[in-house]
């Protein structure tokens, strides 16, 4: 790591994901293996915010203060070979099978007092069908109060269920805006909300979609591909965030850490981490500090002056 300073803020979290930096200096995370939302204070102590059950993945705060949660239904967690059961793989704490008592995949709403409600379990396809959510992955909220949702899909036996990108406007209807995508995961808006970025985990590809209006795609291009690495030299693109200068940060599986791209898709730098399951990240309100979720080791890594750490001037 060149420049910057990295410290562990918290340990012992149950597969953390989707950090949200709060105004008071705390960080909210989902604990997918713990079925809950947790607040991590600046001193590293933790407080449970809500018991969602199942597997809460991506979370985002709505303008009214509530949280929207991508409830994937849950998994059984344990130590297993990653990325495949082949020579050279490593054993990580990760999902290893279906949940013993799964929840219905859905978007949940968490009130400011911790009460849990269901936003929806279904969406409307582009041809008007009503279908159930498969395995909601990540979410971002726009200035209109709507939210973009990726449905990551699932594998059953030798079949993979293809999914896509969804949008729920202020009217509350969740509808499909793009299909298919290959295991869509992280999702984030450009600062002016004219572009939407979506990560495909399996392909390591970052898509750029032009937006003519909220939930309306007018253009598309494959913007970039994040590096491979780690065990067996594979990996994937997980969570996304975008800073006010338009730089795109991608949690990078395999290599571990974060890949930083320009708005044109150029590789600007990387910030390494010792956990190949680096699942997501966010920035502090002043954008000086990076918070990274290291899921398999259950930690939050804090990087002060992350631009210097990435070698960006």
From TrEMBL:
<keyword id="KW-0862">Zinc</keyword>
<feature type="binding site">
    <location>
        <position position="135"/>
    </location>
    <ligand>
        <name>substrate</name>
    </ligand>
</feature>
<keyword id="KW-0479">Metal-binding</keyword>
<protein>
    <submittedName>
        <fullName>Gluconolactonase</fullName>
    </submittedName>
</protein>
<dbReference type="InterPro" id="IPR051262">
    <property type="entry name" value="SMP-30/CGR1_Lactonase"/>
</dbReference>
<dbReference type="InterPro" id="IPR005511">
    <property type="entry name" value="SMP-30"/>
</dbReference>
<feature type="domain" description="SMP-30/Gluconolactonase/LRE-like region">
    <location>
        <begin position="15"/>
        <end position="295"/>
    </location>
</feature>
<feature type="binding site">
    <location>
        <position position="185"/>
    </location>
    <ligand>
        <name>a divalent metal cation</name>
    </ligand>
</feature>
<dbReference type="Pfam" id="PF08450">
    <property type="entry name" value="SGL"/>
</dbReference>
<dbReference type="InterPro" id="IPR011042">
    <property type="entry name" value="6-blade_b-propeller_TolB-like"/>
</dbReference>
<dbReference type="GO" id="GO:0046872">
    <property type="term" value="F:metal ion binding"/>
</dbReference>
<feature type="binding site">
    <location>
        <position position="238"/>
    </location>
    <ligand>
        <name>a divalent metal cation</name>
    </ligand>
</feature>
<dbReference type="InterPro" id="IPR013658">
    <property type="entry name" value="SGL"/>
</dbReference>
<feature type="active site" description="Proton donor/acceptor">
    <location>
        <position position="238"/>
    </location>
</feature>
């Amino acid at each position: 790591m060149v420049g910057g300073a990295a410290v562990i803020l918290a340990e012992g979290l149950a597969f953390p994901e989707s950090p949200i930096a709060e105004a008071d200096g705390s960080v909210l995370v989902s604990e997918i293996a713990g079925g809950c939302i947790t607040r991590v204070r600046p001193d590293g102590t933790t407080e449970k915010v809500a018991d969602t059950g199942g597997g809460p993945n991506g979370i985002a705060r709505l303008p009214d203060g509530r949280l929207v949660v991508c409830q994937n239904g849950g998994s059984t967690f344990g130590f297993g070979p990653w990325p495949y059961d082949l020579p050279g793989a490593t054993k990580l704490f990760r999902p290893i099978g279906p949940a013993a008592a799964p929840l219905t995949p859905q978007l949940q709403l968490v009130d400011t007092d911790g009460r849990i409600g269901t936003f929806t379990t279904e969406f409307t396809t582009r041809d008007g069908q009503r279908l159930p959510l498969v395995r909601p992955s990540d979410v971002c909220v726009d200035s209109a109060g709507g939210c973009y949702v990726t449905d990551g899909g699932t594998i059953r036996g030798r079949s993979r269920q293809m999914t896509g990108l969804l949008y729920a406007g202020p009217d509350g209807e969740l509808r499909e805006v793009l299909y298919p995508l290959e295991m869509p995961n992280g999702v984030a808006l450009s600062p002016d909300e004219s572009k939407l970025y979506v990560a495909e985990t399996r392909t390591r590809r970052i898509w750029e979609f032009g937006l003519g209006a909220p939930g309306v795609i007018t253009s598309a291009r494959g913007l970039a591909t994040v590096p491979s690495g780690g065990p067996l030299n594979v990996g994937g693109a997980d969570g996304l965030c975008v800073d006010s200068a338009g730089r795109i940060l991608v949690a990078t599986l395999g290599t571990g850490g974060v890949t930083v791209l320009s708005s044109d898709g150029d590789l600007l730098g990387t910030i390494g981490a010792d956990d190949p399951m680096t699942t997501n990240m966010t920035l502090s309100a002043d954008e000086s500090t990076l918070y990274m979720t290291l899921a398999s080791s259950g930690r939050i890594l804090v990087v002060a002056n992350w631009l210097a750490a990435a070698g960006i001037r």
